[in-house]
């Protein structure tokens, strides 16, 4: 059997398509990655400080933000103190009701809805190497089923990145 160059080209193209379906956004400044499902669209513009990225979801009003901060290393508090503070401050700036929360050694997750517009939020706050990493979702209740799948995939990859 002779080797056909076009066969190699086809195999390379197919392997690139398979990789594209499991795309990731990785932040070089804060060294975190998150899986990007097919229906999630990455903003083409990254902030000048390189701290994160804004995402949207096709067919929804969802806004997803991934970003990092050096704040924990600046204030010198313990991980436990920082996570406790985050847990207490989730609904301070905006009136909301928390319906789900979990706190582990290096992360805190809170979900619920805003009282003024009934939008759902899902926030992940993770501490890693003296930095904080955030993954925040905001979307309408009518998109909950679609967003549940997206959140599951993105959050599991974000937290696995330790």
Describe the structure.
The N and C termini lie far apart (about 45 Å). Helix content is about 30%, strand content about 35%. The protein is globular and about 40 Å long. The strands form 2 sheets. A 7-stranded antiparallel β-sheet has the order 3-4-5-9-8-7-6, with helices on both faces. The protein is of the alpha+beta class and about 160 residues long. Strand 4 (about 50-55) and strand 5 form a beta hairpin. It contains 4 helices and 9 strands; from the N terminus they run H-E-E-E-E-E-H-H-E-E-E-E-H.
Quick tags:
162 residues, alpha+beta, 7-stranded antiparallel β-sheet, two-stranded antiparallel ribbon, 4 helices
Task: List low-confidence stretches.
Answer: 1-22
Q: Helix segment count? A: 4
Can you summarize the main beta sheet?
A: 7 strands, antiparallel
- Quote the average pLDDT: 82
Helix content range: 25-40%
> What letter string, H or E per element, gives the SSE order?
HEEEEEHHEEEEH
Rg, Å, rounded: 19 Å
Oligomer classification? single chain
Distance linking N and C termini? 47 Å
């Amino acid at each position: 059997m002779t080797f056909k160059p076009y066969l190699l080209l086809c195999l390379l193209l197919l392997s690139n398509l398979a990789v594209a379906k499991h795309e990731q956004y990785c932040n070089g400044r804060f060294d975190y990655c998150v899986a990007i499902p097919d229906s999630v669209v990455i903003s083409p513009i990254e902030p000048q400080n390189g701290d994160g990225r804004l995402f949207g979801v096709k067919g929804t009003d969802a806004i997803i933000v991934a970003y990092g901060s050096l704040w924990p290393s600046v204030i010198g508090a313990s991980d436990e103190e920082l996570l406790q503070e985050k847990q207490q401050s989730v609904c301070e700036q905006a009136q909301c009701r928390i319906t789900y929360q979990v706190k582990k050694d290096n992360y805190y997750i809170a979900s619920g809805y805003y009282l003024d517009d009934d939008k759902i939020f899902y926030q992940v706050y993770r501490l890693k190497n003296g930095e904080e990493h955030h993954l925040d979702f905001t979307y309408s209740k009518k998109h909950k089923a679609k967003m549940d799948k997206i959140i599951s995939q993105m959050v599991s990859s974000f937290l696995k990145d330790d």
